[in-house]
Design brief:
This protein has 432 residues and is α+β, with helices and mostly antiparallel strands. The protein has 4 domains: 87 residues, no CATH class; 88 residues, PAS domain (Beta-Lactamase), CATH 3.30.450.20; 66 residues, Helix Hairpins; 160 residues, Histidine kinase-like ATPase, C-terminal domain (Heat Shock Protein 90). The chain is 52% helix and 18% strand. It has 13 helices and 12 strands. The longest helix has 35 residues. It binds adenosine-5'-diphosphate. The site of adenosine-5'-diphosphate (ADP) has 21 residues, from helix 10 and helix 13. It comes from Agarivorans aestuarii.
Length: 432
Amino acid sequence: MFVPFSWQRVLWRVALVYSPLFVLGMFTGYTLEMCLLAAVIHIVWMYTQQHKLLDWLYNQRKLSPPHGSGSWEPVFHGIYNMLKRRLGRERELAQLMKYFRLGAEALPDAIVVINQDGAILWCNQLAQGMLGLKWPADAGQHLTNLVRTPKFVNYLRKARFDQPLEIISPVQSNVWLEFRAMPYSQQQLLLVIRDVSQLRKLEKMRKRFVSNVSHELRTPLTVMRGYLEMLDQDEVDPMIWGKARNTMLDQSSRMENLVNQLLTLAKIESASVEDNRETINFSSMVGNLEAEVTGLAKGKQLSFSFDIAPDIEIKGDREQLRSACGNLVSNAIKYCGQPGEIHVSLSLIPQGALFLVKDSGPGIERKHLQRLTERFYRVDKARSRDTGGAGLGLSIVKHALQHHDSQLKIKSSVSKGSTFSFIIPRKLFIQQ
Ligand code: ADP
């Protein structure tokens, strides 16, 4: 068994070195000289061992110690054990750091760790993309030198981290970033950065939606209120009263129409795609539109042609598809000038079933085409209002088609007419 240190052994070894020369000195009469010689030999041996130790510690890169003899053996062995333990701990620490970094890389947010002076200690891959940092080149750089937005610089300076900060990304002007800072370990700050552009967009949409709905409801309500106030007067001319009554009826049906469209939109948006899929005879559904159209176009100089391929059966949401097709046909009737022609067709093409509504109306300028499916978007607000439209019809069409893996296509040229179409893909056919 290895004994690290024992006085007994030390004394035994010293005796082993000194006693032969001491005895020789006694016999030869040079006791003192022989003792001195033994001491010199002992010192030289000690320095040799010390040299071995220093050479191992400073010049050699290997962990295993040189062979130490005598009382130096436990010294070498002790240092070796200490180094081994430290190396083991370092390895554990490195492994822990690796796990921490892998974990931080796997997070959906960007992470930057800075010290109390704002110097970057570490950042993950996402932070490099979001903030334009370079790792490890930017290690030790002051974060405020790289993200110079004054609001951000102030945020770090004031160190009031109870509220997050939102700023535009320093590398992409259309991206909004939210910074959350958390004091982390000793005098370090953990910054968690998240792309909130989508949230901001949704919030903006929500506000615009509420303001649009209020605006659309306010106009008819103001008109009705005006007429109702008129009724307070003692005598109302029956002619004026007749007109007021008609206008109020008109405005109330406009409001009803708006509320119905909003409900339809909300229903379509919240329905899950697979929810109400049933077998639909798409050909019959489009065929039924032909009968409905006659009522809608009553008194208008419009000529219709329907060309419907028979027996197209698909899986889909009946109400949503009827709403999509109905909106496209009723738009054609609403916006097609008179006299005008409207052609509705359902045909089989290699990709699926193509539904198409073509009119000979005034057409739509190119700049509007992209935005037509936005809620409340109307090309000509005054004209659209005359027809009772609130700009929700095509938005309903878009969402209904999305639930059927389809997309609305609009082709239009000014004074030549418009074509609205979509394809129901073959994967939704009952028999492919
Ligand atoms: P609205 O309820 O106002 O009709 P839509 O969302 O259905 O709203 O349509 C949006 C706008 O697109 C309409 O206001 C109209 O200006 C334009 N539009 C839709 N269909 C046609 C068409 N067939 N011809 C010309 N313009 C159209």
